[in-house]
Amino acid sequence: MNTDIAPRPSVLDRLGAMLAGIRDWLDERGKGAWIAAMILAFIACWPLGLAVLGYMIWSKRMFSCRHRHHHHRHSNSRGFAAPTGNIAFDAYREETLKRLEDEHREFLDFLQKLREAKDKAEFDQFMQSRNEPNELQS
Questions:
Q1: Record's InterPro entries (predicted)?
Q2: Burial of residue 61, with CB atoms counted within 10 A of its CB: 0-12 exposed, 13-18 middle, 19 or more buried
Q3: How far apart are CA 42 and CA 137, in angstroms?
């Protein structure tokens, strides 16, 4: 069995990623895009429009432009923060992130082995309980 495969993301994880992408896309285009999205949401379904309006007020996107380009300015292609210019800190951060990725991979491998051991124990118990009535009949 291949243990290098990460668990498949849930529907909620994929929905959250999709909504984050939409949020970032709207942030890149500014407050006007958010207002247009809110109006279209009201036209499509008024509760959805209220949800967008509530989110805009809650996240302060309604009254300021501070969110514009915020996500893309602070991340690179791997999703980690961009270099700070401090070589020692950047090297430490990269080493720490690599260590954390390795530990995460090892933990996933451990979980897979734990699942396999549990499955084997359950199967062995099933086989033992299946054979017990046959032993009584003999």
A1: DUF2852
A2: buried
A3: 72
Tokens of 64: 């300021």
Cβ atoms of residues 38 and 49 within 8 Å? yes
Distances from the Cα of 136 to the Cαs of 53, 129, 131, in angstroms?
A: 71, 12, 9
- Other CB atoms within 10 A of residue 4 CB: 8
Q: Summarize the chain as % helix, strand, coil (round to 5).
A: 75, 0, 25
Cα gap 50→42, rounded to integer Å: 7
Question: What's phi and psi for 113, nearest 5 deg?
Answer: -65, -35
DSSP state letters, 67-117:
TTTHHHHT--TTSSPPP-S-HHHHHHHHHHHHHHHHHHHHHHHHHHHHHHH
Residue whose C-alpha is closest to residue 119's, from 1, 4, 8? 1
CA–CA distance, 46 with 12 (Å, rounded to integer): 23
> Which pair of structure tokens corresponds to residue 108?
């996933």
Tell me the pLDDT tens digit for each residue of 45-67.
899 889 888 888 888 776 765 54
